[in-house]
# Entry
Amino acid sequence: MAKLRTQYICQNCGAASARWSGRCDSCGEWNTIVEEAAGAGIGGAPAARTVRKGRVLALEALDGVAEEAPRLASSLSELDRVTGGGFVRGSALLVGGDPGIGKSTLLIQAAAALAKVGQRVVYVSGEEAIAQIRMRAQRLGLAAAPVALAAETSVEDVVATLASGAPPRLVVIDSIQTMWTELVDSAPGTVSQVRASAQALIRFAKTSGAALILVGHVTKDGQIAGPRVVEHMVDAVLYFEGDAAHRFRILRAVKNRFGATDEIGVFEMTALGLKEVANPSELFLGERDASSPGACVFAGMEGTRPVLVEIQALVAPTALGTPRRAVVGWDSSRLAMILAVLEARCGVRLAQHEVYLNVAGGLRIAEPAADLAVAAALVSALVGTPLPPDQVVFGEVSLSGAVRPVAQAGARVKEADRLGFRRAVMPEAGLSDARSASGLALDAVTHLSDLVAHIAARGEKARSIAAGGRT
# Structure
């Protein structure tokens, strides 16, 4: 009998090694290497067999007719926005998110919406029993939807069941980490099993024309667990984000072969499930205190959608040798850069102050266009002067203090105009695009010191008016 060969696979990056070690040489993670049998199936070592001769492929010209991908639109407009107009038939989507964030709730709502319009939908759960799925559907008021349910973890049984009847239009696998295939001799959830199971399910989706949704667990760093090759295999990767302290949930596309990346859909978690938020700007600004110092409205872009959100800053003196810097919803290293530019280029002394920065509503901002709004909020909090309540701010700040232009300035000011704002502080380079898009009063700034001087002058004027009123 031939000796069974084993290999050691890192469960974080998928790197293989000949012997076990406590630390992976590829990704640097500790205690992630697991011994697995190198089988002859998918994800294992190749078996000794006769290699067939390849066939000649017919090459196509680049200028051929490109047909639009057939879409399967759901009744959830926010979900359709993120996917690019609906599920593409034969495509595979990977949805990740923290435990309890609402992934299963979102997908059962989407499955029920498609089933109600006559589409065959199959929901396969490897984590919950059918009774648990039915209880969730009853709580959401979706028990009458004709969704076909199954509680199974064997990939071979799942594929055989899907291929036995009428071809399904949508297949939901919750989750891919619980699936296992007999072609790989390792435990469910390992790198080899996740890769092989995903490959078998994606192959079925491509051949049958069904839209496949794979639910993926995430690590403590927020990344989808398992090998990164699965993210390359699928057509779209969606992250379902949110904070347990907030009722809002954000579905974000980080990869989409059939639509725009960084597109977002906003949902509100209620007792009856996830409710779509058609206008997230009004939601994020609905409860703001315009008279408070340190509050600035930022006009941002999430994919193709303009979103207005409030940035809140608090600056307080401290006697500690190292003042604290706390950030929620923004990059902490970006905040350190803005503080350094304010100190070195504008003379704003913040070395003996604690700084707290928060993006209201639970939204996380990644674009550098928020630099100018963050600086305005910090200076406003330092001098104790509120910013104009009808003003939005956006612009990128360089290390020299210059304000650089940002993309889609016209869409940003158009959204601000629609929500009742009357003034925008922005880079000078985007004035022509902004003027043609709306009728807002535009204040162009070329250097960060211009904005600091304007806020300081506003504070002096307010103090002089207050002093005159007391006398």
Observations:
- Residues 322 and 365 are 26 Å apart (CA to CA).
